[in-house]
Write a sequence for this structure.
């Protein structure tokens, strides 16, 4: 057998799996066929093992070597007879420790949930085990210069480490470290040697246990380590500077291994697609400071135009445009039957690209699949878990009712009927509430429907009786109990009316089976966990589901592959798209460590956080070395301008600074090639024909457009006639919000109801102020309890009303001394002779004064209109006075009007009189008659936003009027609509 001993490597840009198999077969050429079966290959991941198996298949008929994962190495049952403890159980045990800590020091966990803290602490314990650190490493940290937070965190860490690291047999990372240490010690002495050649393939030695084992393998007489994406162009002086302090460099994880095992040899003679490009990238990614190296070595680079001829750079304006351009590139590859790989770290970008490809019914092969929390069963379980500790709102209820898992186990009601009943219920709840649905509401609604509705609503009412009390479940409870309750409620909702959970779709398909397995695994170890509240339980559920993903059963296009950055070592060849090259995208931001600062990690001998940046940089270096590469990024995201990825930024800066090597011209050509795809994406998004913007609408419907109009719509008819057209002529109404809020409209309605209740209690003018105040506040409490189901809003509005109660009571007694309320929210009407039109009104209040005249009042929760506003726009109170003069209210008959006044139910609770006399009133009435006549006869069109009070005015029908395609300065041309005969 040819030489198989020591450290080897393959450069970036080659097909790692094929080249590895090629090099191995060349070294086994002089051996019998069965010799290959004695070789053990330790791969870094399951994806690498799969790629190696396919490469061996392409090599022809042969006996396969043994393929294993390097993370599965173990000292063996003779050394450690007990199996390792499940990682979930260990995390839950740490969660119990953290829960005890937070009881004593709640400030230490501010902004973090127990499961999230347990997850990060578990990762820290794994790092300590793989790096061979114990509690003494923590004790060596000097916290004298650190903030109190870090000192407290370290004190707890020592307790956690003493518990977690005590037994080296419990955790697989500790066993892997023990196996590596044993191999390094024993094999050096010739003890317990493997029975055949051992090769470690594809690992970057990303943590201490793996690196130690790779050192042991490289020292074997028949052992080899083959590194992926090794930079053979990097000078020795740079290798000497790499280490833990420069962990963000792409080759930094190789440096300790090289110091221990020597500089690697080439595994094969296969050259990368562009050695010149590899040299350029190697120089661009040098560890800081880089300027002197660029100045010294940059001029020695070859001409950069040939080196970058297969590189394209797409810099889109928006992520959507970036995704469209990528989809076009992948579509062209599919048409030509060429393999292409999209490497992306941003799941959002992947979803955009997949959606864009769906336009042509193309489905790529996505190795990541769909995260389990985003599958129908995963979403269903999350939504059910979110019911605990939160009030059941309309939107939460409808999300559950419309979910494809709900009531799928029922045989008495079909899916179409479920959706129809849910739609009807949604409309009912939107229009009439309540904001927090209850069983009584559902039962009342059921009585007004058919038998199907009664079945559906009866079951739903029973479920609401079960779900409504869950809002009060906020205290910590044992984890097993929470898990049992979640499964029981989810199965009941999935079963449906008279249904069977086993017949539902909840646990049926691949995602359902995987979700059930996650819950069963959680239930098996739940007794280790702490008592947790509903929000922590939701966080734990999402964390456990997030660890799984579901591959679609539908086969993807054989030419189109979507892979993650870590798979660049396997797919960083051929035609590659490196996408989302922005800071925060690739590389992704580092997760904050709540336990150890960077300086504390260095003191403890643990990897610094920048290690993740270095691993991501290595993925980038392998991907950009492929045959043809397209680099993509978006200049802006949804919030602001983006910053190019640090590696792309370095590459562009280096090229821009090498004019003697044609760097600026090469960069411009890269952008030009990318601009071609952006132009195609823009052309694809552009409509085939130019569409003229809509003109400012001013419809003239067949007359008469309406027979009556409430006085409250008159100001709207003056300011925005189109809104009256849409509302009164077309009969359109805005759909009430799915989640009602205690907004200004509800506040106004509630304040009106309070004062109406006070007046209908018929207080006497001589009522003592303190008694009337008590009555007023008592009625306030009753109305708020009935109309406002939000405790915070009730408390706030109660305080506001109590603040103005004295003023309201004093003014009310003064009003009662002047006269008596005769019209309290009673409807009135006045017909316009000869026009077939009636003006209606429902005044807040009209008092009959001692002299036989009346005073017309209107309640305002905001600022009352001024005299100028009343004269030109806000005609309501003046028209109500004119209606009273014309006998529009049965309780009064024709009467003279003494005054119009506004009662402010906010602010200071004052009463505001407004200018009024017969002349102003008559002028207002005559102007109204002329206004209505113009619309009834078709003389005037219903112009959109004719006279808005503010330019920021937003009406309910602006989208129907297509406002934005026209401006307020545009002239409106009346246009007949409908059948005018």
């Amino acid at each position: 057998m040819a030489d198989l001993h020591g450290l080897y490597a393959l450069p970036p840009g080659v097909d790692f799996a094929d080249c590895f198999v090629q090099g191995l077969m060349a070294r086994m050429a002089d051996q019998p066929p069965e010799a290959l079966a004695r070789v053990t290959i330790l791969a870094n991941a399951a994806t690498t093992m799969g790629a190696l198996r396919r490469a061996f298949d392409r090599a022809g008929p042969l006996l396969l070597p043994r393929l294993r994962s390097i993370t599965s190495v173990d000292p063996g049952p003779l050394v450690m007879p007990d199996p390792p403890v499940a990682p979930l159980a260990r995390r839950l045990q740490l969660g119990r420790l953290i829960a005890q800590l937070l009881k004593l020091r709640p400030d230490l966990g501010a902004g973090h949930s127990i499961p999230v803290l347990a997850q990060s602490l578990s990762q820290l314990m794994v790092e300590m085990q793989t790096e061979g650190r114990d509690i003494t490493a923590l004790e060596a940290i000097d916290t004298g210069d650190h903030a109190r937070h870090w000192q407290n965190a370290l004190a707890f860490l020592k307790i956690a480490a003493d518990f977690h690291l005590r037994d080296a047999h419990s955790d697989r990372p500790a066993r892997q470290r023990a196996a590596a240490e044993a191999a390094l010690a024993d094999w050096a002495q010739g003890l317990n040697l493997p029975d055949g050649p051992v090769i470690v393939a594809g690992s970057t030695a990303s943590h201490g246990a793996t690196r130690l084992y790779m050192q042991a393998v490289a020292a074997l007489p028949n052992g080899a380590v083959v590194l992926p994406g090794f930079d053979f162009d990097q000078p020795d002086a740079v290798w000497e500077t790499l280490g833990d302090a420069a962990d963000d460099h792409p080759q930094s994880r190789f440096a300790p291994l090289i110091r221990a095992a020597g500089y690697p040899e080439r595994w094969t003679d296969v050259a990368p697609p562009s050695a010149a490009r590899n040299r350029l990238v190697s120089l661009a990614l040098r560890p800081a400071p880089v300027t002197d190296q660029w100045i010294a070595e940059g001029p020695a680079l070859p001409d950069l135009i040939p080196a970058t001829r297969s590189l394209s750079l797409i810099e889109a304006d928006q992520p959507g445009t970036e995704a469209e351009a990528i989809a076009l590139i992948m579509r062209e590859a599919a048409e030509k039957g060429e393999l292409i790989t999209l490497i992306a770290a941003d799941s959002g970008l992947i979803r955009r690209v997949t959606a864009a490809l769906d336009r042509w019914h193309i489905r790529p092969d996505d190795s990541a699949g769909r995260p389990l929390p985003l599958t129908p069963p995963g979403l269903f379980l999350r939504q059910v878990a979110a019911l605990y500790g939160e009030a059941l709102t309309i939107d939460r209820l409808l999300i559950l009712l419309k979910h494809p898992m709900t009531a799928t186990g029922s045989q008495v009601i079909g899916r179409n009927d479920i959706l129809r009943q849910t739609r009807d219920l949604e409309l009912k709840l939107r229009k009439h509430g309540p904001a927090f649905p209850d069983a009584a509401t559902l039962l009342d609604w059921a009585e007004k429907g058919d038998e199907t509705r009664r079945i559906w609503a009866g079951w739903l009412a029973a479920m609401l009786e079960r779900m409504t009390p869950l809002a009060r479940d906020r205290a910590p409870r044992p984890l097993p109990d929470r898990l049992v309750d979640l499964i029981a409620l989810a199965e009941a909702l999935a079963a449906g009316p008279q249904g069977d959970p086993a017949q539902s779709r909840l646990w049926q398909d691949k995602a359902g089976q995987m979700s059930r397995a996650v819950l069963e695994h959680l239930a098996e170890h739940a007794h280790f966990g702490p008592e947790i509240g509903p929000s922590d339980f939701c966080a734990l559920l999402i964390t456990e589901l997030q660890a799984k993903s579901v591959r679609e059963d539908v086969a993807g296009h054989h030419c189109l592959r979507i892979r993650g950055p870590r798979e660049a070592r396997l797919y960083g060849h051929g035609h590659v798209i490196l996408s989302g090259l922005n800071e925060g995208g690739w590389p992704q931001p580092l997760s904050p460590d709540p336990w150890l600062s960077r300086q504390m990690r260095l003191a403890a001998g643990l990897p610094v956080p920048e290690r993740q940046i270095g691993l991501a940089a290595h993925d980038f270096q392998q991907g950009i070395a492929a045959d043809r590469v397209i680099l993509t990024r978006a200049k802006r995201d949804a919030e602001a301008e983006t910053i190019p990825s640090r590696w792309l930024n370095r590459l562009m800066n280096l090229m821009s600074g090498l004019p003697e090597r044609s760097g600026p011209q090469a960069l411009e050509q890269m952008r030009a090639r990318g601009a071609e795809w952006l132009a195609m994406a823009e052309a694809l998004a552009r409509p085939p024909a130019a569409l003229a913007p809509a003109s400012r609408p001013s419809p003239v419907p067949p007359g008469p457009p309406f027979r009556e109009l409430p006085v409250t719509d008159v100001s709207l008819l003056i300011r925005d006639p189109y809104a009256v057209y849409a509302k009164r002529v077309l009969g359109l109404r805005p759909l009430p919000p799915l989640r009602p809020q205690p907004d200004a409209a509800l506040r106004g309605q509630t304040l009106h109801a309070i004062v109406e209740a006070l007046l209908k209690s018929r207080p006497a003018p001589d009522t003592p102020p303190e008694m009337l105040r008590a009555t007023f506040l008592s009625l306030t409490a009753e109305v708020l309890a009935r109309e406002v189901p939000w405790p915070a809003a009730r408390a706030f509005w109660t305080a506001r009303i109590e603040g103005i109660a004295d003023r309201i009571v004093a003014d009310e007694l003064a009003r009662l001394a002047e006269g008596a309320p005769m019209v309290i929210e009673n409807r009135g009407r006045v017909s316009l002779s000869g026009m077939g039109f009636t003006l209606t009104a429902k005044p807040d209040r009209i008092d009959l004064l001692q002299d036989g005249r009346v005073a017309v009042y209107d309640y305002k929760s905001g600022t009352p209109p001024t005299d100028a506003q009343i004269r030109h726009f806000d005609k309501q109170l003046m028209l109500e006075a004119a209606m009273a003069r014309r006998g529009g209210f049965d309780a009064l008959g024709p009467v003279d009007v003494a005054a119009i006044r506004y009662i402010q139910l906010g602010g200071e609770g004052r009463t505001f009189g407004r200018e009024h006399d017969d002349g102003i009133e008559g002028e207002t009435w005559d102007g109204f008659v002329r206004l209505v006549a113009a619309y009834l006869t078709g003389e005037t069109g219903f112009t959109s936003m004719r006279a808005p009070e503010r330019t920021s005015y937003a009406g309910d029908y602006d989208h129907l009027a297509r406002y934005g395609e026209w401006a307020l300065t545009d002239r409106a041309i009346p246009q007949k609509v409908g059948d005018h005969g």
About this structure: The longest helix spans residues 791-818.
